[in-house]
Amino acid sequence: MTDIIKNNDYTVEITGLTHEGLGVGRINNLAIFVKGAIPGETILAKVIKINKSYAVGKLLKIIKASENRAEPFCKVYGKCGGCSLQHMDYSAQLKFKTDMVRENLKRIGKLEDVIVNPAIGMENSLRYRNKAQFPVGMADGRPVIGFYSVRSHNIIDSETCGIQDELSDRVREVVRKFIAENKVSVYDEVTGKGLVRHVMTRVGFKTGEVMVVIVVNGKKLPFHDKLVRSLTYAVPDIKSIVLNVNTQKSNVILGSENITLFGRDVITDYIGKFKFEISPLSFYQVNPVQTEVLYEKALEYAGLTGSETVFDLYCGIGTISLFLSQKAKKVYGVEVVEDAIRDAKRNAEINGVDNCEFIVGEAEKVIPELYGQGVKADVVVVDPPRKGCDEVLLQTLVDMAPKRIVYVSCNPSTLARDLGYLSERGFEVNKVQPVDMFPYTSHVECVTLMSRVEK
């Protein structure tokens, strides 16, 4: 490492990728991470950081390009913090995500011979998001509406985003023009002053219904009638325009109070045959096409015959619960967020589902209580946040010994940790199916089937 000098340029052979999608090479046997580099490439990189175990480089020149290199479709790629893999061919992205899952299972879970199927990708990997959240700011005396740059709150303005629904581009332009023409103030994170904070759009992919949410630091928006007219003219499919009140000086995007300016309080959409009402505060998967793939796979892995009692833990608004209800005798959905449980009950009612019961509480507390009361699951589905499952919950599952556990995960590292725990205590990992919910990013979802090993 003593031979490596900060700010000097070095030729580097890229041999791998980190979990964040950074290229990995070596200089004098010291690992160097370079954003934008791909395995198989020879690059020229400037060393911008050095510590005991690794260095960080800045890509200066591609001497030899990988066959997997692609031209980014976004003009602000590299500045915007949204995507990180646009420089990589989509098939290579899928292989990267499959390999990342497999490597985590081996390194963290100590699981060597698990079947990891190739990641299921999208036929059309553009315009897949049904929800956009744009921060609003000022630059050079004009309003800017875009996304934050990498590791900062500087807003990168742009006219379009290739992974968002095209309607969000139109909405953004209308709001930008409205703010400028009517001299409406925008929020300043430093001072806490100003009015307009964020613009959020939600689109029902199957219904075509559109919701626009204007997040404000107050309870009124001057000239809001003008904005309503402009938005509904530019986007006739708008069914709801809502003012969301957020007066807190924090990074939380949405406040708890909504004021409907136009149309309904909610829009609707479908996942499979199930209809869902979506409010500004509802949790709803942002990629409806792949969500259906993910949930159908979870239902397949559950292997239900109609006689089973199923626990759906971290159930959110009950989307997976409703899918499971098609082939289960009884589904218990557990979720700590009270508003989500209220939405789950409403969604069950809308769809005429009467074999789901939803319970508010922490899964690691509710499940031991249910188990203590003699309520036992034949199949358990868990879909935890990125931190994974609580150990108390995992131990309760071990004690309960359901026939199958279906683990839906958004984080391969905590998935591997939890699968390792369960595999040491009476369960076998049968197979893992990665699903690409977020093309052009390093994120990947997985559905895993575990079965109890008979002693």
**What strand order characterises the main sheet?**
6-21-22-20-19-16-17-18
Oligomeric assembly: single chain
Strand-pairing-aware structural class = alpha/beta
Distance between the termini: 52 Å
User: Largest beta sheet, briefly?
Assistant: 8 strands, mixed
**Count of helix runs:** 9
β-strand number: 22
The appropriate CATH architecture of the largest domain is 3-Layer(aba) Sandwich
CATH homologous superfamily annotation of the largest domain: Vaccinia Virus protein VP39
- Per CATH, what is the topology of the largest domain? Rossmann fold
Mean pLDDT rating: 94
- Global Rg: 24 Å
> What spatial form do the alpha-carbon principal axes imply?
globular
What percentage of amino acids are in beta strands?
Answer: 25-35%
Task: Specify the CATH class of the largest domain.
Answer: Alpha Beta
Number of domains: 3
Portion in helices: 10-25%
What's this entry about, in short?
The protein is α/β, with parallel strands linked by helices. Helices cover 25% and strands 31% of the residues.
Structure in words:
By secondary structure, the chain is an alpha/beta fold. The chain has three domains: 9-64, Nucleic acid-binding proteins (OB fold (Dihydrolipoamide Acetyltransferase, E2P)), CATH 2.40.50.140; 94-123 and 287-452, Rossmann fold (3-Layer(aba) Sandwich); 131-278, Beta Barrel (OB fold (Dihydrolipoamide Acetyltransferase, E2P)). 25% of the residues lie in helices and 31% in strands. It has helices spanning 90-107, 166-182, 224-234, 288-302, 319-325, 338-350, 363-372, 391-400, 412-423; strands at residues 9-17, 23-27, 30-34, 42-50, 54-64, 115-116, 131-139, 142-148, 155-157, 196-203, 210-216, 238-245, 257-263, 267-271, 274-278, 309-313, 330-335, 356-360, 379-382, 404-409, 427-435, 445-452. The chain has an eight-stranded mixed beta sheet with strand order 6-21-22-20-19-16-17-18, with helices on both faces. α1 (90-107) packs parallel to α9 (412-423), α2 packs antiparallel against α3 and α4 crosses α5 (319-325). The mean pLDDT is 94.
